[in-house]
Write a sequence for this structure.
């Protein structure tokens, strides 16, 4: 449990949030998200378009709480994991739907070097720094401004020394829901000291809309001819391997579960399934599709576009039935898959890879689009 002041505020109408009383397509009760955390107000915000799609987001961790998309029969389904109240987001450690920072994924031994000085970051995952440390941005309250029915802008000031990262960083995450059913995410950040930054969204997708069902039947295509292997602590080795002839090859559509348990292939053993970064062929061209995911049950298809060089595919290997989410559903192993657009893990310590350093006067930007459609 986080040692923060946590007090519920009197529920009432708040401009630009989901209407109190559960008047949203996901059936969420906005009153259960009304709170004050770290001295800041927390709400649930609703985005909706004329096509009937809806996304609800809380400014605690910049988290996507629900995504309602029509299936092949026209029925709306909630296709992301999460909780239906703010108390669970605070008290149960998770990355469900979060805007991750300062550094998504892992940094080896929690050490970075900035202008010759070695900085020790928190070591919260097998001796490495994962997702910005144990108090990363997924546990911070963003300042929220809803621009209109389809756009929410979240801003966070991360002070110099936050989880030992240098520099006062001001970051913005803008969620926009388009009329053609795409959730368009723009990230930006500036700093007053040289630092590292790597932002992503950590939504857990189950496109069937039924999180009691595993996603091993989902059909995945990754437009990536290579990936970055990991050791037994999930840390990238610095190598880039071809996917051809291995269970890592999703260059043509393949069921996620088709080869996921082939633990004689050491990478699946090391990752406990898929928990790897793929090197995208698009190489920063967000006009090219980077990945495609389809549920054969619902027909819902997600297409991923990004200007990032990589995507981490994580198949919910460490969900273990100990957490109950929305509607009291128990989240078992592999009931969701994450597609985390990113620079490669541990890039600060691998200078041959695309740089994650941000200097004063520069603007960090990142772009991710989750586009939804239906396959008959």
């Amino acid at each position: 449990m986080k040692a923060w002041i946590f007090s519920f505020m009197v529920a009432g109408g708040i401009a630009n949030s989901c209407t109190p009383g559960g008047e949203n397509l996901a059936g969420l009760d906005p009153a259960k998200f009304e709170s004050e955390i770290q001295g800041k107000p927390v709400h649930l915000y609703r985005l909706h378009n004329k096509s009937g799609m809806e996304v609800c987001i809380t400014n605690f961790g910049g988290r996507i709480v629900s995504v309602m998309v029509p299936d092949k029969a026209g029925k709306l389904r909630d296709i992301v994991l999460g909780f239906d109240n703010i108390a669970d987001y605070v008290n149960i450690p998770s990355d469900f739907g979060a805007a991750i920072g300062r550094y998504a994924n892992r940094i080896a031994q929690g050490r970075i070097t900035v202008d010759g000085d070695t900085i020790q970051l928190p070591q919260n995952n097998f001796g490495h720094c994962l997702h910005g440390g144990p108090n990363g941005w997924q546990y911070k309250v963003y300042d929220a401004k809803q621009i209109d029915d389809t756009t929410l802008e979240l801003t966070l000031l991360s002070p110099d020394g936050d989880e030992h990262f240098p520099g006062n960083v001001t970051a913005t995450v803008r969620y926009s829901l388009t009329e053609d059913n795409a959730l368009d995410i723009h990230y930006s950040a500036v700093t007053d000291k040289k630092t590292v930054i790597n932002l992503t969204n950590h939504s857990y997708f189950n496109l069937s809309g039924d999180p009691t069902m595993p996603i091993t039947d989902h059909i995945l295509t990754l437009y990536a001819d290579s990936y970055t292997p990991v050791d037994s602590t999930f840390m990238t080795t610095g190598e880039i391997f071809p996917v051809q002839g291995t269970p890592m090859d999703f260059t043509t559509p393949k069921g996620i579960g088709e080869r996921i348990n082939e633990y004689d292939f050491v990478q699946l053993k090391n990752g406990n399934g898929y928990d790897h970064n793929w090197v995208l062929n698009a190489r920063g061209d967000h006009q090219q599709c980077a990945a495609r995911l389809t549920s054969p049950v619902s027909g819902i298809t997600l297409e991923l576009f990004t200007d990032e060089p990589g995507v981490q595919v994580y198949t919910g290997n460490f969900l273990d039935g100990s957490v109950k989410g929305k509607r009291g559903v128990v989240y078992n192993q592999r009931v969701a898959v994450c597609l985390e657009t990113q620079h490669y893990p541990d890039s600060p310590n691998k200078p041959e890879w695309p740089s994650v350093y941000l200097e004063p006067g520069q603007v960090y930007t990142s772009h991710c689009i989750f586009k939804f459609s239906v396959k008959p």
